[in-house]
Amino acid sequence: MAQLTESVRLEQKGDIAVITISNPPVNALSYHVRQGLIDGIKEAETSSATAIVLICDGRTFIAGADITEFSQAPKPPSLQAGQDAMENCSKPVIAAIHGTALGGGLEVALCAHYRVALETAQFGLPEVKLGLLPGAGGTQRLPRVTGPAKALEMMTSGEPISASEALECGLIDEIVDDLEIGAIAFAERAVSDSLPLLRIRDRSDKISDAEVSLFDNFRKSIAKKTRGFLAPEYNIRCIEAAVNLPFEAGLTREQELFSDLMRGLQSTAQQYYFFAERAALKIPGLPKDTSLIDIQRCGILGAGTMGGGIAMNFVNIGIPVTLVERDQESLNRGLAVVRANYERTAARGGITSEDVENRMALISSSTDKNSFADCDLIIEAVFENMDLKKEIFRELDAICHPGAILASNTSALDINEIASATNRPESVVGMHFFSPANVMKMLEVVRGDATSDSVIATAMSIGKRIKKTPVLCGVCHGFIGNRMLFMRGIEAEKMLLEGATPAQIDQVLFDFGFPMGPFAMMDLAGLDIGWQESTSSSSTIREILCETGRRGQKNGLGFYTYDSTTRAPTPDQDVVALIREFAESKHIPQREITNQEILERCLYPMVNEGAKILEEEIAIRGSDVDVVWINGYGWPMYTGGPMF
Ligand code: T1G
Ligand code: NAD
Fold it and tell me: In what order do the strands lie in the sheet with 122-124?
């Protein structure tokens, strides 16, 4: 056995040379891995070995370039040197893949002559998520194996495919049960059957008949989802180069576009976000061995806008749910919404109709809170009313088993005050989901003064398990996201009174990259959230709109009017007139407000509030605030977030 570099060793097993990479945690292509790969191929080529297997120790095959190296000057040797050595080797090179062959990892595997994998392996080029594109030939090789259509889908989504999909589209040659044994057996057969030393760069069968319309149609199909992002378009251009140019020219084009992106702010922001999302899971002062509470069953109180969606998150990963409402009619309505959501997904092919039934069967429903007795985590999602919540937490404290976690989905209320209604404040925590709760990834975990370490650790862990992005925050009105949202709302409302229109303000924030502006968002959520007719006194524009019967999208009339079928918004001159009238009654002079002023007056108060949130230690780090805004409100990831 030869230890070639700190992370790469070479052994010979029978007639087969085995190069093993061991660079935890994900076998990233750090410079010593690249060097070891080159040395390994060179040594194996001159040895008595008849073929070469490339395999990795640990949890996964190479998961990509070492992202931590991006911020440093490039260190030799280049990855391409290792890839060339593999591709031009005079002996068969077989890549043996487990875990996730991603980015540069898949690009290395594509330079082997053959690829075998475990059934559980995954394959992807996720560089687009970092604001990049595969910069080691992947944009030229992948289309030559899968065809341009599949390559377009994989490279602009960045999502991996399974081993069976990879086998089907020719990305791998065999699925094996035991990786090393299977790879060595494949290598021996490659020699005994004199299999050709296939170089993907020499293939053109999958790219010769690509339709030009494929690319324009594809661009249209992702335009909405990728609006403002550069990397998806650049990935498409690389695949066009693969179809239209000879291989080497295509590589040159890939390098040009890769360098453009690498130098740009979007990629810097998205690389920052990659680490920000992972940093949010690290809670200083929380011992690594903090015990987790076992969540076998989850209880949810309230099946309204939020409760049903929250239930789906747990059912989706197989955790049974007890859903309780105050009366049968509300319960039936809540369950019907859940079923409709699942059936819509099934209609799109996301799940089967059998999945729909299985998931609905995991929800037991009741109008009696005593049904929560066997639940380990209960999430309250009833009206945003402190007295009601305290009354409910008092009841839950008496009903639920000792140690059960009592969580509130409150948007802004004081978790400490809610906890004070129980004899178990150490088990009370905020779990603030974002609407729609079954879609938005954001979960603010709100730590009360008395909340225990194991309740915090459990809430963060279950948050990750239900595929949310959890961020821990302290108690204040609105926690992190909504507290900053309130500041934007105040300024946006002021600008309405000074002469701007809802459509103008919304357009400025839409053009900045938000999915929608503040007024469209209020219409979507419902203008009457927290509005009481009995106490309404025409003191704000929102109150006046509610008093005139406007509730937002839900009744077709809000800041905008909505088409009853398409729900498309149309600016409403009556609303503008109503705003002008209100402003005059306040003697506010009217003026033209520029888009730049609108953008600054909406964003800067949020950044200032974010700074206060950090100063008060409500958030642990600035990047946590960015994670909240990117995942909770669609702040464009390619700008890094308000604090970035
Ligand atoms: N480089 C450096 N560190 C990485 C890394 C990477 N590529 N991927 C993960 N880590 C660290 C991560 O920060 C964390 O560190 C630990 O590994 C576990 O990760 C030339 C230019 C592989 C699916 O984009 O998608 O190749 O917090 O918590 O949930 O064309 O990591 O423990 O200190 O995410 O099990 C392309 C990125 C790079 C893959 C595992 N590759 N990684 O998920 O663990 S660009 C990627 C992932 C490129 C080429 C281009 C995931 C994972 P710490 P984790 P996980
Ligand atoms: P909602 O009005 O849509 O639903 C609340 C449900 O609670 C209703 O179905 C009602 O029947 C039920 N309910 C009321 N009292 C009850 C009781 N005593 N027992 C059982 N059920 C009872 O409200 P929502 O939008 O789902 O909000 C629920 C909570 O989630 C609030 O605290 C809200 O601030 C918070 N929240 C809302 C959003 C949002 O965008 N809507 C986002 C995040 C958090």
Answer: 100-102, 122-124, 161-162
